[in-house]
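Re: beginner question about structure tokens

> Can someone show what the tokenized structure looks like for a real chain? I only ever see the sequence side.

Sure, here's an example I had lying around. Input first:
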Amino acid sequence: MRVVALVLGLFLAGCTITTPTESEAPSVDRGAMAEDEGTAVDAVSGFWSRNFTRAFNQPYQSPRVAGAYTGTDGPTCGGEPSVAFNAYYCRPGDYLAWDEELMAAGYSQIGDAWVYLIIAHEWGHAIQARLNAELVSVAAELQADCLAGAALQGAAQDGVIAIEPGDAQELAQTLAAVADDYPWTDVSDHGNAEQRTASFNTGVRGGIPACIT
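And the corresponding structure tokens:
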């Protein structure tokens, strides 16, 4: 994932992620995907470790990364079981987790930028959990997109990740895809594709302060 501004256009063609059946596991290089997941975690974690205290004048502790699970074999959250084809931040446990089949579906159908955005978005929710309530937007999902944009652009500017040709389109397609109605997301509370892209771009252009209004 050369360092350029990540400002996105709105790409709507081919942005639907197909949910695989048990017999249709996505054909991806799982080793390469796992490496991208690790890089995304390191990039986003490092960005917030370097910038959270400066932005909010309070100590920062990184959430735990439970990472990958399959189906319903993930960690419970507040006594509730994990959900298949999902990615989430669990506030009671202060951890992030994601279904590997969700990651693989996006990785194969859109590209590696999918992994970076999913992790950066869920980390955005972990950041919200650390803030005073008045700093958390009522449009929490769109704010998490904004924080994801700030984190990925900041990590690129710091030279932690390199943005390659095609990444901006992949990120825009990811935002469009996750704005659709899947078991783990709903347009009514996550925003539509245009709103999500605009929120991400706000974070890219303005950094953390632009996301806290």
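Each token stands for a local structural state, so reading them left to right follows the chain. The two ends are 29 Å apart (CA to CA).
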